[in-house]
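Researcher: Go.
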Amino acid sequence: MRALQRRGALGVRFEWFADGPGARVTAVTPNSGAHHGGVLVGDVLLAADQRSFASEAVFRSWAASLRYGDDVTLWVERDGARPRPVKVHVYERAREVAEGVKNHYESVALADGTLLRVIVTSPSEREPDAHVVLLPGYRRDSWDWPSAPEYPLRRWIEDVARAGFSVVRVERRGLGDSEGDGAAQGFVEERDDIITAASSALKFTTRPRVIYGYSLGGLHAPFVADALSARAVAVWGSGIDTWTEYLDALLRRRMLMQRASEAQIERAVRAQQALCATVHVRGETVAQAVARFASLAEHKAMFGIDVENNAIDGRPARFWREVYQCPTAAALEGINRPLLALWGECDWLTTLDEHRRIASVSPAATLITVPRTDHGYARHDSALASLTSPPGPYSPDAARAFSAWARDALR
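Model: Structure:
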């Protein structure tokens, strides 16, 4: 099989502005393309290759498409002066390295010939006891973080590997090293790709498999478990309501925590309901929804509305329609294997009640609450702190809880 070309990277980290366009450069990797091109910490990125970014999700999708050897022009603002072009040569990305684990990068071919990158993280000194297939959340960005050793999800993977498991990650189409254009991919197609790639990566092993649905990946979990003949299923920070019910509850919760007025909350919720009713339920385009409801133009930034690409929050409208139609609750009820509902008590994106209901659908289910841990495995003192404060330090408690449960479930 032909080898996949290694992904490229700009060599910068950004802090996205919540109240306006652009992102501030918070770090520049030494000897990277951005470093040699003259990008400085404090610069404000406004556009790249003449393209502006409506939201962080749109920017991340663009950045993930960069390949080693590309040349891009960043438009940056420095010290309040007029935006200036900075030419950056995209450099080759490193590979993840950590003490006590080994990372194996391989290519898996889909039926149409597209190659996906699979990363398997295992204990360095022993064979794994079981394989954990990690299902990604909704964010369309890479699952490969060589330049971010402290990134909490990477630390979770490494801790689970040190506990004796291998963790299997499938990079989606068009992200990381993976080929293809996944920008228009649906939710079901994405699941099918993960099943195909994980099946291929694990075809020569007889060790048991555990499915771990991270966030929105929890909706995929019962279906992937059946396809991969998994012995156990775990979900983290997932939901069980229909997608529109979940979005309404999340928006109200977030705006209340941000101390918005009742009028502001009601207006935003009604706008979101209009978007869901037209796009998710009726199958209309985002442009049709915006044309019909004036309130959506007011909330375009809040919802990540991209009329030109018929997308919401960096994902095509059909992706969200399929999420809305996903029968996760019924599928979970049919699970006849150990099921774990794992929730961090500082997770403002989901609730304890949702996880209690997940655990109630199966007699083989377990509910575990992880103290002082947020949705992304960072440590905080409250859900409000997780929402409003910078990312906290990594919390190892979720990895410990999952690893102990998985070991017991596989006995």
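Model: The domain at 8-92 is CATH 2.30.42.10 (Pdz3 Domain).
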